[in-house]
Design a protein that fits this description.
homodimer, alpha+beta, four-stranded antiparallel β-sheet, DNA-binding
DNA sequence: CGTGAGCTTGACTTGTTTCAACCAACGTGG
DNA sequence: CCACGTTGGTTGAAACAAGTCAAGCTCACG
């Protein structure tokens, strides 16, 4: 792994193209840690954070369940998904990762990944050295607070996912999924006139909502016919966000 | 809240009747923190952990979703459940808490509970002062490691729950639930000849597995008729654990 | 040009929910 | 002591949601 710091001299070459949930988090951990990495360069490299950049093809796995990871991966560009699987092949997607997402805060402390991480689109990933991050955390107590917030957020989303899967109908789940993704993207400024990137395949939607591909596809078709959404190529337009919210139902 | 330490002079008066998952955790956080509370007494009370004991009737809530808690509750006796709810009343139980369980490691850092906590049986709860726990964590770094383990464990269980709800059939979910509870109880030494306390009502099982009460009841009846389990009063016997495991299916 | 991944649609089957009725156990207050 | 409401469990029939199977289609890619 290189011991060179993140270079951001070229303005078109920011390591992270967008930042998830910046409004929700007190601040963006991913950006903060990159800044620290860059600052480390200035004081002689002693506090630099080693990293490695990787490009991963769509549909390839970054890591498998229970695999030990050398570093802590951050999504710089593209979409990824975390999933767990049963031995007979049934899978459940736990979360979608957007640019600026740390895969999981746990990976900073525990090198063993509890879920597989798979590229949805072509992906750019920057993997930071775990020990260097830990050292940075000790030097910057506010970073530790951010991590704590991210962890809380992860737990809250896990609870949300459980009640979605356990107690909501298929229609509600899919409406909910689309709305949540749209909100995350909107917060990053990645939504324009209700149109957003939507690289998910139907099997991603099915695996995220606990449905079969066929059923998920049918419901999407219903949404399209009902004028709620418009899908073309790899982008999705929220034609009737309020209608979707009504369908997504009870908070 | 009393500033008196936990008294355990009376041998029949241990604050915690049993300790969950002691084999799985490196050590039991709950016991450790009680020991520290007691030790605090000896050095003049400066390091004592303030606490309050409470008895809660079955079916009563300890706290509601998004409620702010003064202290950090530990289950000393009885069973409890954590749950989230939709506004129309649909509920999902996230976990059952057995004696020796901390409700959630997050409550040490974040005073706002993300889920409701409800007594399944009559319950004895000891609530420790949050600031005192935090101070103890700083004095005892190994406690911090335990918390980290507990958090990891919570995340892993959340992932497990998600795939259970999303991808398993009703029968698998119920078999799985019974097996997991039996394993936790066995680890505490609360299982004798395959017989364990089983105070759950059918609506608990339904809410934990994302099913209706009627369907959960039917499946339990099937299990009974199939000679897999025997239920009498408030206890359950694993008549055919291997059969159950076969039904619970793929890991 | 062939191949594989992905989407759509329809007919059919299965799993699960809903509704409803009934019964047993239990605690409470008259 | 009994009447009564509440809580919990059981069962059956009917309605519905979701899964399975199958076929045909487009599109991108080598």
């Amino acid at each position: 792994m290189n011991r060179k710091p993140a270079t951001a001299s070229n303005p078109g070459d920011r390591p992270v193209e967008a930042c998830r949930d910046c409004a929700a988090y007190k601040s963006c951990f991913c950006h903060a840690i990159m800044c620290i990495a860059e600052a480390g360069e200035n004081d002689g490299g002693a506090a630099a954070i080693a990293y490695q950049d990787q490009t991963i093809a769509a549909r390839r796995a970054i890591c498998r369940e229970n695999e030990t990871l050398d570093g802590v991966p951050f999504i710089c560009k593209g979409w990824a998904a975390t999933a767990v699987a049963l031995s007979d092949g049934r899978r459940q997607i736990l979360s979608f990762l957007l640019p600026g997402d740390i895969v999981s805060a746990i990976l900073i402390f525990d090198p063993v990944s509890r879920c597989s991480i798979e590229a949805v689109t072509e992906l750019q990933v920057r993997t930071l050295a775990r020990d260097d991050i830990k050292a940075a955390l000790l030097r910057h107590p506010d970073l530790m607070d951010m991590i704590s917030d991210i962890r809380d957020h992860e737990v809250a989303r896990a609870a949300q996912l459980s009640i979605d899967l356990g107690r909501r109908t298929a229609i509600e789940r899919i409406a909910q999924l689309i709305l949540q993704l749209s909100e995350r993207l909107a917060r990053c400024g990645l939504m324009h006139d209700g149109v957003m990137d939507f690289p998910l395949r139907q099997h991603h939607i099915a695996d995220a909502t606990g449905l079969t591909v066929v059923h998920a596809g049918n419901i999407l078709a219903d949404f399209r016919r009902g004028g709620l959404i418009e899908i073309s190529g790899r982008s999705l337009k929220l034609a009737d966000p309020d209608g979707l919210r009504r369908i997504a139902g009870a908070l």
